[in-house]
């Protein structure tokens, strides 16, 4: 019985050793799996940090774009105002030019009319002068003839 008891004890020790070996093997497997998971976790944390950095970088870039967009919108509004001012000035200048052109055309028309009137008056006065010169010549000839007649009678 003692031999049986020793066998039984030995069987229990072998079984305990096998269980211990299985336990140690499982523990190593679990340890390896834990290391894999920890490594995976570290990679995921690293990726998360990279993504957070990219997110922060993109947020900053987005903010810069928003600021630049606002500046460009202000520039566009300023340019629109300048265009409107230039358009208004152009319209005013065009209206002023049209008014000046109208006045110049009117003045030119009046000057032509005055010139035509003066030319007609000049022609009339020239004709009157020629008639007066002809009459004066006629009177002079009559006067000279009458004077000769008086001298020959005396």
Please explain how this structure is put together:
- Helix content is 99%, strand content 0%.
- It contains one helix and no strands.
- 0% of the residues are buried.
- The model has no long low-confidence stretch (mean pLDDT 92).
- With 154 residues, it is mostly helical.
Tell me the β content: under 5%
If you average the pLDDT, what whole number results?
Answer: 92
Low-confidence stretches: none
E-strand count: 0
Distance between the termini: 218 Å
Whole-number radius of gyration?
64 Å
Counting helices, strands and paired strands, the structural category is mainly alpha
Helical residue percent band: over 70%
Shape assignment = rod-shaped
Give the ordered list of helices and strands: H
Largest sheet: none
How many helical elements?
1
Quickly list its features.
mainly alpha, 154 residues, 0% strand
What secondary-structure arrangement, pairings included, does this model have?
Layout lengths: L1 H152 L1
